[in-house]
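The following block was generated as part of the benchmark described in Methods. Ligand: glutamic acid.
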Amino acid sequence: MSVRVRFAPSPTGFMHVGNARTALFNYLFAKHNRGKFILRIEDTDLERHSEEAVKVIYEALKWMGIKWDEGPDVGGNYGPYRQSERREIYKEHIEKLKEKGLVYECFCTTEELEKMRKEQLERGEPPRYTGKCRNLTEEEKEKLRKEGRKPVLRFKVPKDRIIKFKDLVKGEIEISSNQLGGDFVIVRSNGMPVYNFVVVVDDALMEISHVIRGEDHISNTPKQILLYEALGFKVPQFAHLPMILGSDRSKLSKRHGATSVKEFKEKGYLPEAFVNFLALLGWYPKDGKEVLSMEELIERFEIKDVNSAPAVFDTTKLNWLNQVYIRQYPLNKLTELTIPYLKKAGLNPENFPREWLEKVIGVVREYFTTLSDAPKYAELFLRDDIEIEPEALKFLQEEPKRVEVIKLFYEKLKGLNGEIEQESFKALVKEVGKELKAKGKNLFMPIRIGITGKTSGVELPILAELLGKERLIKRLERSLSQLKEIA
Ligand code: GLU
């Protein structure tokens, strides 16, 4: 049997990490089994769906490196791939159920249904639709229609049926048809077919072999199985992925911070790190190797290894992975991705030669967790209009010799023949230390402050070499004149 799976998001304008994980697991499963990954847009339930919201889905998937074999924009033999374009197909299948006498019109109002529910709860019974409209006569229906009531269409749930399926993650699942809440709605009073119905028609006609989706849909599965059978379709295999919890073990939500793919992208996570992290939400490779590229994930991914227990979203782990990827990323690509963050922070990376900028990124990447941390470190290289920070100033003023260190270092640097390199920088610092009998913090910190205005940052010799003599001199002059003004 050829493997065909689908990712079927609703265009809400937002791609939640849970959805992104579902897309990824479907993709990994499809590619591992040399099957097809299909993108279907579930836009029937929505009052309005904008092109913008569909674009959000495309962009999130593309950013993650997930390519679909069939979908609204790329086409395929099983289209259309947007539910809003499949209305005729749904109508046809509703007709089939009507012909088979498996559905009926229900005219109950919201108030009547609410009353039914209340009474059942009072009697200690689980709420369910009683089937009140199952046997209405034509005259009765006509009368209700005349009252202006618009019927919904309900599916007749058979009595005393045990519905069984083997979930590839959760194992054997069994439920009685009596526990499904009674005959359920498949077409709303406005004529819109509901999710449980359209998803079955689509999955069957698109020949989906495995339905892999979030655990929140597991309660829909028995109803869907009944519909597959009613329509004479083959039931696919199901795999329900574990929930994703926040660090406090409650369902992952806004409260826990970023939850949409776009937010993670904007914060400066690399797509490879994000994907790697998502793959580990509920799945773990047998060989224990945690840092895995998409190809390596595809190679290792087995649906049977997905854990049925909830997965905890551990930001520390995501950060760790991001650091790992940042440090091993091709420098030109990393620089490209970092530039927008530098610009946003008011730095002007375009004023510097690209080759030099790459060297800078090569140095500072050791220090940052996400790309949005980059400006903080890159600033040391890109901004010459430094100001001595209050804390740094306080440090210099505590000990007169500290300012002397900056002055002497400045003099010596001016007298240096040729460009400055890490070694010559170290030698100069050493000479200054010897002459002024300064060492450790009293030696290095003043020089750092003189060059950067700050008390911390990247390693000085590397910074000095990359800045070059001329810019170092200018910065030291600027600092010294600031110190003079204060003195
Ligand atoms: N549109 C549904 C969702 O986003 C799809 C559920 C399914 O995969 O069946 O949750």
